[in-house]
From TrEMBL:
EC number: 1.3.3.5
Enzyme class: oxidoreductase
Domain Plastocyanin-like: 27-136, 180-263, 329-446
CDD domains: CuRO_1_Tth-MCO_like, CuRO_2_McoC_like, CuRO_3_Tth-MCO_like
The UniProt record lists the keyword Metal-binding: yes
Signal peptide location: none
InterPro entries for this protein: Cu-oxidase-like_N (IPR011707), Cu-oxidase_2nd (IPR001117), Cu-oxidase_C (IPR011706), Cu-oxidase_fam (IPR045087), Cu_oxidase_Cu_BS (IPR002355), Cupredoxin (IPR008972)
The protein, known as: Bilirubin oxidase
Nucleus found in the keyword field: no
Amino acid sequence: IAKSQVYSSTDGLLDFDLEASYRPVNLGGIRADLLAYNGQISGPRLEAKPGDTLRLRFTNNLTQPTNLHYHGLHVTPTGNGDNVFLEIPPGEALTYEFTIPSNHPAGTFWYHPHLHGLVAEQIFGGLAGLFIVRGELDEITEIKAAKEEFLFLKDFELDRNGQIVQPSPMARMTGREGSLVTVNGQIKPTFSIATGGLLRLRLVNASTSRFYRLELENHPLYLIATDGGSLSEPVEVRELLLSPGERAEVLVRGEREPGLYRLLNLPYDRGGMGMMGRGMMGRGMRGGSFTQRNPETLATFTYSDSIASLPLPQKLIPVEALPEPDTVRRFEINHGMTPGMGMVFLINGQTFSPNRIDTQVRLNSVEDWEFNNIGVMDHPLHIHVNNFQIISRNGRASPYRAWKDTVVVSPGETVRIRTRFADFTGKTVYHCHIFDHEDLGMMGIMEIT
Ligand code: C2O
Ligand code: CU
Ligand code: CU
């Protein structure tokens, strides 16, 4: 199996070429015609450090326009930075260049296309890759001693000829999912863990719409980082829900009997566009939904050798408490019907317009945003450039502080997040990370001045 290509920075510069093109790819033994970055699924892994400059010469060899977004990075949204308003026509090239601030947190980030209207199709086709920032968190002794693995979760749907299946109108409304679930472009790969050792898993949900409710059999997970980097201390969890766009880093202790342990994706109901929605038809019985009824195996973990027992870290990197907000905003999340247009997805009653500023914020201010989902499906809401903390869910305070850039808001829920707009002015976006919903309108523009 071909190992993923890695580009690391040298002397403060991450300098390389990236190409998007159509490629036949071996996807777990199946020959699939996909969209790939540099011919690989997943795309090359990028590794940088705080303070580094990225120079990425991007070539679009697709037959449709595309662009790049650096999901979760706190970098400029203007110029040739993380600017999602850029559009690279077929056959053309563009050099992205930006600097990662020297105080940027270490963490697991990723990159993918972001051209409104085509995002779901291009990500579902295979375009996405990891972007790792190595820093303070990676220097903690116990974390340094852990064995690192990347788990890039991505689903595909192929027909008999290995072609990507086009979604039905219903699948677009719900958010397209594929039945072929891959981890790093492989089907049910095996990872090894040493008895006594620590495993550090960096998990990314790079799927267009599929949620993952993860459990590793007989092993508690010690959450050490979320979307935006480190927690203050490890938090023990039994399972982990990752909606599209979300990341998590967990430690696993090699403390069980040697054997085979499955990484499971447990059933989860994210709602759907059935006639009645959630409720009237009962959970898991909605038309046009993708409710998964049985746990499925994503990967297996086996014990290899045994090493001197490694402890868990006690303390990680402190997560600061943000000051009280200067402004509180409310966003109502819903779907709707437009005469002739079919289903659309709405933020405060509006679909995306590139010619409208929906939210005007001030640099260096702290804001609370309240997302109220009055629809029938979960929406993982994502904000570019500035990370946030979840303050409360239906009025219940978050159990711990964590940096996030994507948060699931379920039907009937009100989620309050807090963010500080720091360092960068310019226009950027916030949207649902089920990319079919984003393409069908669930995105707004904010301008930071
Ligand atoms: Cu990963 Cu605007 O998205
Ligand atoms: Cu993003
Ligand atoms: Cu959505």
